[in-house]
Structure formats: C-alpha cells, structure tokens
Amino acid sequence: MVLTVSPVINKLTQMLWLEKFKNHAKENPLSVILSEGDDLRVIGAAKDIHQSGFAKKVTIIGNTENIKNLADKNKINLEEVEIIDPDKSDMIENLTKRLFEIRSSDYASLEEARREATNPLVFGTLLHESGYADIHISGAVETSAAVIRAFFQIIRKNRKEGMPASFFFVDGLDPKWGENGALLFADCAVNISPGPKQLAHIAHQTGNIAKNIFGFNTRLSLLSYSTKGSGSGELVDAVLEAGRELEKLNPDFLFEVEMQSDAAIVPEVSERKAHGNSVEGRSNVLIFPDLQSGNIAYKLVERFAGAHAYGPIMVGLNKTSTDLSRGCSRDDITGTFLVASYYHLKK
After folding, report:
1. Between the N and C ends of the chain, which has fewer C-beta atoms within 10 Å?
2. What is the domain-level CATH number for residue 101?
3. Residue 312 — φ and ψ, nearest 5°?
C-alpha cells in the first residue's frame, strides 16, 4: 500500500475532516477523562481541548503535584482543568467497592482491589463507568493490552452496538484516497485472529459506522494477500468465508472480498486485477484479516504517508472509550477526542 501525499494536500484534507469534528464538538461539548496525567502530551492535549471549547469538562487523573509541576515547567495553563489524584480522592472507596463488585473473583479482599483501583488507568475507567464523563482516553503511556483489558473488564459490553472491536479514523491523505482523504481501518487493536464470522461482523459494523456515523458512501474491502484467486491457502479461504458470512448480514453498502490493498484503493490496479468489481479501487473502509496486519498497516500509513490515525475507538462497550498509540503526539490525542466525540453523539 503506497500512499504518497504532498504536505499541502495533507494539510487541506486533514482540515476538511478535522474542522467538521471541531465545529461539531464546539456546538455539542462533552466531558472527557484523560487518565495519564503524568505525561506532557496528555497535559498539553487537556489544555488544548479545554481552551478550544471542545469539551465542557476535562479531567486529568494522576499525581496532582507532579502534574502541576510538569505543567508549570512547560508553561501550560491548567487552571480550569480538573485534576484528580486517585490516592487522595474521596471517591476511591466507592470506586473500590464497584471494582470488587465487578471482579470479585479476582481479589482476595477489598484492600487488594483498592490497590488496583488507585492505578490511574483503572481509576479513570471506573470513573468513566460510573457516568462521571462521556469519553475516556488512555494509552499514551500504558500498553494497548493494559488499556483494552481495563476497558473490557470494567465497562459492560453493549451487544446492540456490535461485537467488541475497534476502528481507526485515518485522515490527512490525498482526497483521491478513500472518502475525501479519509478511511476507516478495522480491527487493528482488539481481535487478534478473528474467525470468519467475527471478521464478517467487524466488517458489517465498521461499514455501518462509516455510513451512518461519518456519512461515507461506504465502499468496503476485506483484504487478503490474494485478489480474486491470485493466491490460495487457508488464510485466503478464511477471508472468502468471511465474505459469505457478511453477505448473510445483508449489508447496505458496497463491498468486495479477497482484495489486495492496491486493488482495493487504486482504480487502475483494481480494474487490472479484478475487472468489474463493485468498489472499483475506491475503498474507504479497509478490513484487515487479523490484528497483526492491521496494526502494522496503520502505523506505516501514519509514518510514510504523513497521515493521522485517530483511535482506536472501541466498539461494543456501553461507554465511548479510546486507546492511543504510545507513539502518539499531543495533536493525535486531541484529534482522537474529536473523532470520539463525534462518534459518541452520532451513534
């Protein structure tokens, strides 16, 4: 997948979507928890989100003294940003009881549960689960495994929203790619090796999110190392089976199965490799066969194409939760909040 973008086009297409999300956030400000307050990127993003009017309330979790010292040292004004120190919070007892209630089999005592509840990630997730804020963002410091585990262990699943999965909103590409320079990638964070039925459900719900939430004219491809019989083997068969399962779900959008990435996104290549296919090399939703390929792909697109991959946004939870890459920037955190805010209000 070779995506080359000029800096001017990159900036314009990023503005196209981000301005839409920014305006929507200002008109419908939500509340957000950022649970890694000891990180300068998080502190900066908290200030940006609040100062820009994107959120009505911004809460940072962490050691109060450390956060204030780091902010002061870097001349970041957190005057109207709430800081909660789990070790000193008067909410810790109730949140500990809630954690023990949710995961009683994991703890020998309330005291053991309390020790974990003071972890900023766990504390922030418990606070989010209690209804304290609309959105929770973590992952700038913690590993994705730790973040996703906390989310799915503490927050109840919402099967009406879909099976547990995630998507990235990839933005800042040449407008000839995807939907005016944006694509949705899934699932690059949650399901390690989905079976055909799981992959079909991931495709179905992601295609619907693209269409119903973000307003895409969804053109989806289930990716493979093979295009329409050019390769064979168990991995190709699994993608083909996922396509048959997706067909049973009666998707209300165009899709193609067993597409190499170039055939999915480049019209000339698509015509050469898969003449007459319905997406015609203009896919705006890419479904990866496993987490490994999806995770590798989104990071390469970010770094080589200069794109922004906002997310991953979790799907299938009762609360709007997002992970981050530990390689994220301050702007990536703000952008992820904007995408999550839009998703939260439109779903």
Report:
1. C
2. 3.40.50.10950
3. -75, 140
